[in-house]
Amino acid sequence: MYTLYYSPGSASMLVHLALLEIGAPHVLEHVDLDAGQQRSAAYLALNPKGVVPTLIVDGVPHGEAAALAMLLAERHPDTALAPSPGSAQRADYLQWMLYLANSLQPRFRAWFYPGDHLPSAADHIKEAARIGIEACWTRINTHLATHGPYLLGDNFGVVDLYALMLMRWSRNMPRPATSWPHLAEFATRLKARPSWKQLCDSEGLTEWA
User: Which of 109, 107, 110 lies closest to 122, judged by CA?
Assistant: First the structure.
């Protein structure tokens, strides 16, 4: 049994989707970010960074959405959400997971909170984030055009769930991810999976559902 501390629409979506795809028993604990619950002493004892997600695995709390998704895929190899170690696609899987974690996701932080570190340059930071995000979408769209329908070709996996979450984050940007044709098809394909509807229903998400 897993326990996932989550907030609707946040980075915890990736872990929640992975749990649903695996079919693993789990309990959801809502963290009210607007009320500042992530800064409470009780939550900081679980996650010193004061962010979601936190996943309780065998009684021990762990963080970092990408790492948790990879861990779940590893703990449940029968679900084939990730290529097995030593397989031909393992390198591509690791490459795409780290590309999303290092090149794309951090730019959303700059887009949503451009004044965090340098308020006087917030407009420039936000514009740079937009350009960087769109460049990432262009790269992924080109890859899907020749190597799709999923990021690892014919094999659906946790890396696709990661991309889908980030695509949702772009929904209100000047050029959302679905502005790219192969990404739009990719999103439609993934949103047709039962796990997506389950997540939207349980998290109360209606926008881009």
Answer: 110
